[in-house]
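User: I'm curious whether this sequence folds into something compact or stays loose and floppy. Could you predict its structure so I can see for myself?
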Amino acid sequence: MPLPAPLSRAGRRLRRYTVTSRLRELIQQLGEAIHESVIESEQIAGVVQDIRKHGFDVLLMLEATIGLNEVTAKDAADAEDGTEEGEEGPFTQNDLHFLRSLRISVEGEEEGASENDTE
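Assistant: Here's the prediction. I'll summarize afterward.
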């Protein structure tokens, strides 16, 4: 008997997807691009230099979490049209769920929306 999918923090079932080698390569490229952006940032270099002038060495460690959501053909068509079913603002349901997970409320969002936001 297969094991059930794990639960997210919100109690939803997480879907398991097979990551192809090409997708894995693209994710790796994204991570490298983020790394290069940080390394080449003049603003970051300037702040690091200012910290060193104050007598401190700097060790910068960043962690990036890359999340993927599979897009269905209907979602892709809606995105091209600029509309999504049931959406009334600049945020998708995924955006709202993410913001709520960070304990950030969105103006105009109903207070009880997090309890009602189950799949």
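Summary: Residues 69-119 form one domain. Helices lie at 21-40, 42-53, 73-81, 93-101, 113-116.
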